[in-house]
Write a structure and sequence with these properties.
Layout: E1 5-17, H1 18-21, E2 33-45, E3 50-54, H2 67-77, H3 85-91, E4 101-103, H4 109-112, E5 122-125, H5 129-133, E6 155-157, E7 164-165, E8 174-177, E9 184-188, E10 197-203, E11 206-212, H6 238-254, E12 258-262, E13 272-273
Parallel strand pairs: 3-4, 4-5, 5-6, 11-12
Antiparallel strand pairs: 1-2, 1-13, 2-3, 7-8, 8-9, 9-10, 10-11
Family: Belongs to the metallo-beta-lactamase superfamily.
Pfam family, one: Lactamase_B
Keywords: Hydrolase, Metal-binding, Zinc
Length: 284
């Protein structure tokens, strides 16, 4: 069976106020901020000699984001980037020109990076992304998104029909087996926003569940139920988010070979090889 080799980088940091993460905040702590990293996962397919990214982090120059996004930066996000993905990759011997695909879990600023710095990469988005965010800036002056996220001739958006019935991965009925060898299964998982997707990357010993922005705090994996503490200020469809998280938890609990890798949760060493030991079960 084809497997991938996965390493991780950090490409930027930002802040989320507690009131957006939990619904039981008080006036005293509502504006208390949680600092979160933007994890980038480098996927290498040795059998096909392909290099890919799952999410691309933040742009190195924050001023290049749309003015409407700048307003959110000033209000609460306050992002900063010590090192962007192209720089981190290059420092570890991987040139940005060698990246074949960038799979964006969704189109938010901290996941899409700068496509111009990966001139040969195809940029892959989930179904419904462009109809939700385009026209973007500068065509739509009020948009938080950038038209440059979708380079002509290099943008690939999955369609609903690309997600085919798949067995052995309940509770998901369908997935896109992107390379046709089971090494990377893309799963439609809207809720956070239209087009959001997650992935199962097959590695030695099991799977890494690349969860994107399914949630923003480890506690949400236990508190997503109605009446729980989880806040939905960062999500567009609360019911969709609950369904997505419940499926993730159900899948991971049913197996002993899954490690959950969220975009903003967990701690990794620089260029750490992300592995899973057989029987280890879900962990962040």
């Amino acid at each position: 069976m084809a497997t991938l080799v996965v390493h991780t980088l950090e490409a930027g940091r930002a802040f989320l106020p507690e009131r957006l993460l939990f619904n039981d905040t008080t006036p005293t702590n509502a504006d208390r901020a949680y600092e979160f990293p933007a994890h980038v996962f480098h996927l290498h397919h040795p059998g096909k000699n392909l290099r890919m990214l799952w999410d691309a982090g933040m742009r190195s120059d924050i001023s290049t984001y749309a003015p409407a996004m700048q307003a959110a930066f000033e209000a609460y996000l306050h992002p900063y980037v010590r090192e962007d993905a192209p720089t981190g990759l290059s420092r570890n011997g991987v040139t940005p020109e060698s990246i074949d695909y960038i799979f964006c879990s969704h189109a938010h600023f901290d996941h899409t990076g700068d496509a111009d710095k990966f001139p040969k990469a195809k940029i892959v988005y989930g179904a419904g992304t462009q109809s939700h965010v385009r026209p973007a800036y500068p065509i739509d002056q009020g948009s938080r998104y950038l038209e440059s996220l979708f380079p002509e001739g290099r943008t690939l958006e999955l369609a609903k029909g690309d997600f085919k019935p798949i067995e052995g991965f309940a509770p998901w009925d369908t997935a896109c087996d992107f390379f046709g060898d089971g090494s990377l299964l893309l799963i439609d998982a809207p809720g956070h926003m239209p087009g959001h997707m997650i992935a199962l990357a097959r590695v030695e010993g099991g799977y890494l569940l690349l969860g994107g922005d399914s949630c923003h705090h480890e506690a949400h994996l236990k508190e997503y139920v109605p009446g729980g503490r989880m806040g939905f200020g960062m999500h567009e469809d609360a019911d969709g988010v609950r369904e997505n998280i419940s499926k993730i938890v159900e899948f991971a609990k049913a197996r002993g070979d899954v490690r959950l890798c969220l975009a903003h949760v967990g701690t990794y060493k620089d260029w750490e090889r992300v592995v899973l030991k057989e029987g280890e079960g879900m962990r962040l």
